Amino acid sequence: MNRRRASPTARTRPDRRAAERERLLEAGTRDHYEDAALYDYEYSDRTTDIRHYRKLARQLGEGQRVLELGAGTGRITVPLARDGHDVIALDAMPEMLAVLQRSITRLGFAERVRPLQADMRDVPLRDGEVDLVIAPFNALMHLYTWQDLLACFREAHRVLRPGGRFAFDVQIPDLEWLRWDPEARHAVTRFVHPVTRETLIYSTNHRYDPQTQVCHIRIFYDDAPPAGRRFVPPAKPKRLVHLAHRQIFPEEIRMLVATAGFELDSLTGDFDDRPLRDAKDSQVALCSRA
Ligand SMILES: C[S@@+](CC[C@H](N)C(=O)[O-])C[C@H]1O[C@@H](n2cnc3c(N)ncnc32)[C@H](O)[C@@H]1O
What we know:
CATH architecture of the largest domain: 3-Layer(aba) Sandwich
Number of domains: 2
Order of helices and strands: HHHEHEHEEHEHEEEEHEE
Number of helices: 8
Bound molecules: S-adenosylmethionine
Structural class: alpha/beta
CATH superfamily of the largest domain: Vaccinia Virus protein VP39
Strand content: 25-35%
Distance between the termini: 65 Å
Helix content: 25-40%
CATH class of the largest domain: Alpha Beta
CATH topology of the largest domain: Rossmann fold
């Protein structure tokens, strides 16, 4: 008789791990975008990328037909519409698109912007329908496998007219940062929530899984202590936001671009044309559909 039969616990452990990973990826794609007003507040000082995408669209010609993948609240969409381009603003999250819809209505750009709730791996547009596809601010880092990434690159290629361009930016993997203590609290910052007006403490930590290349970031929001008192993280956070980011290495970008049928025109750093080896934050790519 075989005495070494697996116990029920041992048999189900891989399933539980897979289910937990799924749960984290699901939360890591949604949580950060459920409070769209807070998202806009947190990134209100990020403007270099807006200038980059505006300049690119302007250089390509007037009245470009643009598809933005992961358009969010319209941080980039709205300036492009203001410049006279027609933008299809695709995003998976209705909360983000609702803010975008309010902005374009208020600013009178409803004719020029089409919000589209969809998945960037399966774009409901016709072949060759647009001149320019953009995926700004790490949107592609929400595609967690090479199959998902390739599906998205192929969709970008399909919906572009011949000669059209695909431009995107993703974080440059920082191996030292990825190995930071996953239990410490970093970037501890006191702020006032833009809608509720609560005074809160923002802090983060992260755990990197080198097997999947996904970095699981936890963003904590806690009640702030009275002014002058030191913040001590409570055992249970007031709100915990999970953010999952697939690290995409430069050689993966080159491979995805080529496999989807694009020419890579440039892969540089930080929106100022610096060589990638000097990049501190972003890999900035521009490709052409031959
Ligand atoms: C970091 S935000 C960028 C938003 C906007 N482009 C900006 O620059 O502020 C990433 C966006 O991608 C969206 N997203 C994530 N996965 C997606 C998917 N598979 N399909 C469509 N949108 C997705 C999120 O909902 C989120 O709005």
